What we know:
Layout: H1 6-19, E1 25-30, H2 33-48, E2 57-61, H3 67-75, E3 84-89, H4 96-107, E4 113-118, H5 127-135, E5 137-141, H6 149-159, E6 163-164, H7 166-176, H8 180-194, E7 199-200, H9 202-208, H10 212-226, H11 229-241, H12 246-268, H13 273-280, H14 287-294, H15 299-318, H16 323-336, H17 344-347
Parallel strand pairs: 1-4, 1-5, 2-3, 3-4, 6-7
Helix pairs in contact: 1-2, 3-4, 4-5, 6-7, 6-8, 7-9, 10-11, 10-12, 11-16, 12-13, 12-14, 12-15, 15-16
Amino acid sequence: MPQLEPQQLYSRIEKATESQEFRPLYFFFGDEPYLIQQAVQYLKVCALHGGAADFNFSSYYAGDVEMSRVRDEVETLPMMATRRVVILKEVQDLSDKEWEELEPLITTPVTSTVFLVVGHKVDKRRKFFRLLSEASEMVEFKKPFENQIPGWIRHIGKAFELTMSDEAVQLIHRLVGNQLSEIEAEIRKLADFVGEKKRVELEDVAQAVSRKREESVFDLTDRLAAGDKVQSLLQLVHLLDQGQSEIGIVSLIARHMRILLLIREGMEQGFAGQKLATFAGVPAYYLNDYVKQAKFWTNKRLEQCLVLLAETDKALKSSPLSTHIWLENLVLKACSLHQTAQSPVERIPS
């Protein structure tokens, strides 16, 4: 069967709910766990609607269960309902022998059960992938592109009955990043914060949303400004641990460097307060943090770092297998630009 797009899957599940004719085998995989979890929950609720859900639902992780148990569950007849739902997660961890045990459920699906197989980074060269692609409703859930995140922020906000200003959406994206699960968690906090108002403005985001990612970038650029190679590399690891991609980290640092450059240029022109914040394109709430850090950089060094970042971005896209090497080189070269002879006071007009 051809691979479906996520929106096609939801359309088919809606039709199946109306006709009560679900497919017996579904296969969800990809690198966006939030979207996978949303689709799993939607299929489960729709397929069990109107039946005795507690008696007809089972969910297992591949590493915690024998495949014979899974087969028994799938082949068990539903109780006081038209179908059962059985979910097997993390199937990328299954061995070839375990897949052989499941093969009869794939080649000859049990029509009284909705069997949902879920994985993440699956190996498309393996036999099981071919079998599933031929027999199942198969959907790959990919991480959204950077320019798609604002739309997802609005979409998730609607689930909480929130409307958001453009500035609020931009700040959420800046502070939280591209992880949809983290975006949902922060929007949930925002919903509690604004209460019955249901309208989210920039000020609400600034007060309620965690600055974890923004603070991590500040910490990294602080260490780069000081020429501290060890701590810079540690801060780089922290960003990776937060789920940022290598290319995403380069983009974050480059954006931060451009803001610092604008801050310095604005201050040299005599701007301050809201006028400086508008010139640099940052919320006034965070202006003092940017101004403080900008004093530890020179325009020349910021421009040199932006050149390094552009070179690193190009290298990451052309040689993705050596990502850690390119990032380490970026940090080491940026730190080597440190000029210990200059003091913060000499670097920027007060």
